[in-house]
């Protein structure tokens, strides 16, 4: 009986519509899941891949970058520029310019993986906004690091003082002696370690990470 | 008080009152729709402008008013400009007939129902003119759809109304409401002793009302994923705004008509507290309950396909409404026949 | 390129009842996902001819493959089809591993399967929401995105990105799957099962959707074969072709799953195939979570990768069908040729033939059921 089946189909169809309305009503009773973005924000995951940034060494308050240019070579979109200079009295080169062209960066993280000295990591900063294109085209990571270092120095005055003392000692050593560092390979390391421990106020806190970090740096 | 009852003042009062009612409804139903959609989709909806989003319609209105009303080259400029007016006028006219309470009616006519339907049909023409005048392929396709859709749905709607007229015996809306007084079981919706299919006729009326007002799931005229914005594609600024407001004004008219015809208008569902302002309260309560259902439906279902829409009308709704018409007639005449023979 | 003559309506021989017009759908049309443009020659609402115009988002991925090292091309693979980035990376990584004969640790293979299947579910969710948007239902996409958000959160916590993961490396993974991820995935599977039931009740069983999709846009198995359509499109035509079974890769041979097929070949069949695939993916994930061993997550890979001279192919079952990478190496650090066989391109190719004689809303519903990703077509 086709009339009956047609009627039955109509009723079944109408029932499916009511089911749908029941479901939306049920969902409407549940609380809203929106995060009101500018007012509250989500916490970024630990592994979140933002733009790269230079790591602040928690002991020296400086970058660990040796400007080996491995990151530049690993970058698929050629968006990194790294310049390094060899400062007086230092064993390795240190970074003098580190800029990221964020307009071409694809956040792939090849640079972070390529870095042999853990000098760069992902920033957790996702609110990267500017009215000026140049701010993205030449994102000066070193400047950002310096700003961070200032905060770090305020938070850890002892470590900052130690680092400053070490730098002063190194500079003094460099001016005093001839470039005979090659004869004693361990000399800079040995020179740095005692300086780090010399500030008396908090000797127990500082040396432990200091030793670990300096080791990774020299290897 | 006597001064208010004088004819010119009365006309002015109701004119302003209806315009304000339609304007406020159109503005705040948009907000209610967006809030309702947000609720269903588990998000808060607009909540930044004003107190929890209450000033959003104002902001939208200012934005629309500030935009240039552009008449694209090659359009029929007169029709293009006239269409928004034509689409807004019918719901205003119709609302003049709707009794908000036993004492609040702009104009009580003994052919009120006929009046509402005759003006309600102009709406289609306005949409068609707007689409035609736009000189846009999407708009013209949409216009063609609107016309055939409205023709198809006018028929079952009128059949249902004829069924109802046979029961009530009058076209005066206020009288129709008065017949339904004394409790919700006296509403036309529940008059199953007159016709056991009365709830079905209400459903048919409601579906037709959705189709006539071009609401989802029958929003063929503005099928944005197919026809960009349908008949309104070329309209910007307040031209679009008026179309948009007219959609809500039409919903108000459609829902208030459904309330009057089936849900007892301003009659109280419990039989007491139905006069004066109480009546207006009951009426608005029923009206907004229906409007809420319309919003709820929109945010639940996908759009129907145009041809299944016509199939629904011609193959399902019209036969059923014809059947109810015959059934009602038979049930009304049955006692007469019975008395004649026995 | 579009010739000028294509824009002139078909000659109607002076008969006004046969008049046609050209409707330019896209590249900025709300129904064309992304920047697809379709030139429709219409007779009223009937389509006489539909010609897809592609290339608006062509980015020369294949050429880019020829001017950078193997590792440098890796981030590109996530960007070809942004919705199934895991599968695409898998194909490229797999091709290089096959050519260089790099051993991949078992743990890494299982992690690849888990993340790939999660990615497939999230991709199908986007398709589901977008199809419903095409059909005028606005709510399902938000429900789908609510659930998809959970997948994205899991993958973000794992590899740091939400869409362009770039998670696989030659010989393994970028970093290890942690316990939090494995537990989160288990929770997600438990959460998703009742949600799929809700999807079914809200949308699949809905009479309006059934009327919109049943019998609409039939794509016969023969047509699919001629145009090389794969994935849910050919499975919706009743052909049980799935790369995971036809050309087994990774640890899929060790995992049980059904290949959902529907012989009706209409839009509803393709719809149901994808809905079933989500269930099957959950099933695969459950098994993989049970079987995943401990161990290293990356194998031994030479520091400077030079592939031996040769020609290697590797195909995966991406969310939209068979994605294949063919790499030709001339022994240098840089590929000689990287050929990408993308499923959406083949799936779109049949559109012109299939949409003939359909009416506009049906044609758009069919386009939605093909699940096109425009960057995947243009590459």
How is this structure best described in words?
The complex is a heterotrimer of chains A (219), B (342) and C (379). Chain A is mainly alpha-helical and 219 residues long. Helix content of chain A is 46%, strand content 10%. Chain A has one domain: Alpha-Beta Plaits. In chain A, the strands form two sheets. Chain A has a three-stranded antiparallel β-sheet. A two-stranded antiparallel sheet of chain A has the order 1-4. In chain A, α5 crosses α6. The radius of gyration of chain A is 29 Å and the shape is elongated. Chain A starts with a helix and ends with a helix. In chain C, the strands form three sheets. Chain C has a three-stranded antiparallel β-sheet with strand order 1-2-3. Chain C has two domains: 50 residues, no CATH class; 318 residues, Cytochrome-c3 Hydrogenase, chain B (Orthogonal Bundle), CATH 1.10.645.10. Helix content of chain C is 49%, strand content 12%. At the B-C interface, α7, α10 and α13 of B face α5, α6, α8 and α15 of C.
**What proportion of the residues of chain C form beta strands (DSSP E)?**
5-15%
Helix content, binned percent of chain B: 55-70%
Largest interface, counted with CB-CB under 8 A?
Answer: B-C, 27 and 32 residues
Mean pLDDT across the residues of chain C is: 86
Structural class of chain B: mainly alpha
Order of secondary-structure elements of chain C: HEEEHHHHHEEHHHHHHEEEHHHH
- How many individual β-strands of chain B? 0
Tally of structural domains of chain C: 2
Low-confidence stretches of chain B: none
So, the CATH homologous superfamily of the largest domain in chain C?
Answer: Cytochrome-c3 Hydrogenase, chain B
Structural class of chain C, by secondary structure, is: alpha+beta
Low-confidence residue ranges of chain C: none
Shape of chain C: globular
Provide the fold topology.
The complex is a heterotrimer of chains A (219), B (342) and C (379).
Chain A: H1 2-29, E1 52-54, H2 70-74, E2 80-85, E3 94-100, H3 110-114, E4 120-122, H4 133-137, E5 139-140, H5 141-155, H6 157-176, H7 187-197, H8 207-218
Antiparallel strand pairs in A: 1-4, 2-3, 3-5
Helix pairs in contact in A: 5-6, 6-7, 7-8
Chain B: H1 2-5, H2 7-40, H3 56-66, H4 77-95, H5 112-120, H6 122-133, H7 137-168, H8 173-179, H9 198-212, H10 224-227, H11 237-262, H12 276-298, H13 306-341
Helix pairs in contact in B: 2-3, 2-11, 3-11, 4-5, 4-6, 4-11, 6-7, 7-9, 7-13, 9-11, 9-13, 11-12
Chain C: H1 4-7, E1 21-25, E2 37-43, E3 46-53, H2 61-66, H3 70-77, H4 85-100, H5 106-134, H6 139-159, E4 168-169, E5 172-173, H7 179-204, H8 207-213, H9 221-227, H10 232-235, H11 243-246, H12 267-291, E6 310-318, E7 321-329, E8 337-341, H13 343-349, H14 351-354, H15 360-370, H16 374-378
Antiparallel strand pairs in C: 1-2, 2-3, 4-5, 6-7, 7-8
Helix pairs in contact in C: 3-4, 4-5, 5-6, 5-12, 5-15, 6-7, 7-12, 12-15
């Amino acid at each position: 009986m086709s009339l009956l089946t047609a009627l039955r189909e109509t009723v079944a169809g109408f029932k499916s519509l009511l089911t749908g309305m029941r479901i939306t009503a049920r969902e409407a009773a549940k609380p809203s899941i929106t995060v009101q973005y500018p007012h509250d924000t989500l916490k970024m995951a630990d592994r979140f891949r933002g733009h790269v940034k230079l790591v602040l060494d928690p002991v020296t308050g400086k970058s660990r970058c040796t400007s080996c240019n491995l990151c530049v070579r690993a970058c698929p979109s050629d968006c990194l520029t790294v310049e390094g200079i060899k400062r007086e009295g230092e064993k390795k080169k240190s970074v003098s310019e580190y800029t990221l062209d964020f307009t071409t960066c694809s956040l792939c993280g090849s640079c972070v993986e390529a870095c042999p000295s853990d000098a760069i990591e992902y920033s957790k900063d996702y609110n990267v906004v500017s009215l000026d294109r140049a701010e993205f085209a030449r994102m000066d990571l070193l400047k950002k690091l310096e700003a961070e270092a200032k905060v770090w120095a305020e938070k850890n005055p002892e470590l900052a003082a130690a680092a400053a003392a070490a730098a002063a000692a190194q500079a003094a050593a460099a001016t005093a002696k001839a470039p005979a560092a090659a004869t004693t390979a361990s000399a800079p390391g040995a020179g740095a370690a005692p300086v780090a421990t010399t500030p008396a106020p908090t000797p127990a806190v500082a040396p432990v990470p200091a030793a670990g970090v300096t080791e990774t740096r020299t290897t | 008080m006597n001064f208010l009852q004088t004819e010119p003042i009365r006309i002015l009062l109701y004119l302003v009152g209806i315009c304000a009612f339609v304007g406020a409804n159109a503005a705040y139903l948009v907000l209610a729709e967006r809030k309702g959609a947000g609720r269903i989709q588990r998000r808060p909806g607009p909540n930044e402008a004003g107190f929890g989003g209450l000033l959003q319609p104002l902001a939208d209105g200012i934005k629309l008013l500030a935009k240039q009303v552009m008449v694209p080259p090659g359009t029929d400029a007169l029709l293009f400009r006239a269409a928004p007016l034509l689409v807004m006028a019918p719901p205003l006219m119709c609302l003049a007939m709707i009794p908000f309470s036993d004492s609040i009616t702009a104009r009580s006519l003994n052919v009120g129902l006929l009046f509402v339907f005759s003006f309600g049909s102009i709406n289609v023409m306005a949409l068609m003119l707007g689409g035609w005048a736009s000189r846009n392929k999407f708009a013209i396709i949409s216009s063609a759809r609107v016309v055939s859709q409205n023709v198809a749905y006018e028929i079952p709607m009128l059949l249902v109304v004829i069924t109802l007229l046979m029961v009530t015996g009058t076209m005066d809306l206020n009288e129709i409401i008065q017949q339904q007084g004394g409790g919700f079981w006296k509403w036309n919706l529940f008059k199953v002793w007159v016709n056991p299919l009365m709830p079905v006729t209400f459903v048919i009326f409601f579906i037709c009302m959705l189709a006539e007002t071009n609401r989802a799931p029958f929003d063929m005229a503005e099928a944005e994923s197919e026809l960009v914005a349908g008949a309104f594609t070329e309209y910007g600024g307040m031209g679009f705004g008026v179309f948009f407001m007219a959609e809500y004004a039409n919903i108000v008219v459609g829902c208030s008509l459904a309330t009057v015809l089936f849900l007892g208008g301003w009659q109280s569902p419990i039989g007491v507290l139905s006069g004066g302002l109480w009546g207006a309260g009951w009426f608005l309560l029923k009206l907004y309950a229906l409007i809420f259902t319309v919003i709820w439906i929109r945010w639940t279902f996908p759009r129907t396909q145009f041809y299944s829409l016509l199939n629904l009308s011609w193959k399902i709704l019209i036969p059923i409404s014809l059947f109810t018409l015959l059934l009602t007639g038979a049930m009304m005449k049955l006692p007469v026949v019975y008395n004649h023979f026995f | 390129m579009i010739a000028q003559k294509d824009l002139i309506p078909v000659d109607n021989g002076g008969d006004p009842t046969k008049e046609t017009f050209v409707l330019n759908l896209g590249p900025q049309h709300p129904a064309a996902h992304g920047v697809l443009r379709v030139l429709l020659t219409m007779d009223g609402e009937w389509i006489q001819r539909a010609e897809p115009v592609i290339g608006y988002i062509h980015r020369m991925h294949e050429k880019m493959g020829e001017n950078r090292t193997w590792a440098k091309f890796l981030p590109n693979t996530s960007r070809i089809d942004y919705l199934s980035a895991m599968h695409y990376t898998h194909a490229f990584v797999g091709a290089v591993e096959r050519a260089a004969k790099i051993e991949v640790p078992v743990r890494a293979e299982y992690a690849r399967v888990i993340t790939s299947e999660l990615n497939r579910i999230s991709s199908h969710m986007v398709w589901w929401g977008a199809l419903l948007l095409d059909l005028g239902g606005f709510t399902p996409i938000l429900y789908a995105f609510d659930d998809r958000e959970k997948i994205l959160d899991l993958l973000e916590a794992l590899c740091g990105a939400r869409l362009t993961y770039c998670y696989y490396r030659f010989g393994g993974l970028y970093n290890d799957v942690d316990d939090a991820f494995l537990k989160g995935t288990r929770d997600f599977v438990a959460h998703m099962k009742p949600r799929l039931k809700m999807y079914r009740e809200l949308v699949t069983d809905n009479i309006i959707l059934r009327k919109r999709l049943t019998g609409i846009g039939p794509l016969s198995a023969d047509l699919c074969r001629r145009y090389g359509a794969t994935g849910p499109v050919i499975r919706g035509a009743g052909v049980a072709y799935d790369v995971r079974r036809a050309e087994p890769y990774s640890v899929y041979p060790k995992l049980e799953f059904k290949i959902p097929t529907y012989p009706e070949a209409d839009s509803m069949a393709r719809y149901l195939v994808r809905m079933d695939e989500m269930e099957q993916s959950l099933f695969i994930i459950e098994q993989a979570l049970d079987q995943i061993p401990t161990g290293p997550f990356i194998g031994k890979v030479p520091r400077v990768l030079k592939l031996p001279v040769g020609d290697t192919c590797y195909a995966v079952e991406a969310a939209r069908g068979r994605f294949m990478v063919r790499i030709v190496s001339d022994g240098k650090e840089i590929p000689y040729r990287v050929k990408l066989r993308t499923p959406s391109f083949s799936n779109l190719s049949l559109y012109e033939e299939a949409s003939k004689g359909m009416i506009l809303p049906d044609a758009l519903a069919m386009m939605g059921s093909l699940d096109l990703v425009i960057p995947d077509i243009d590459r």
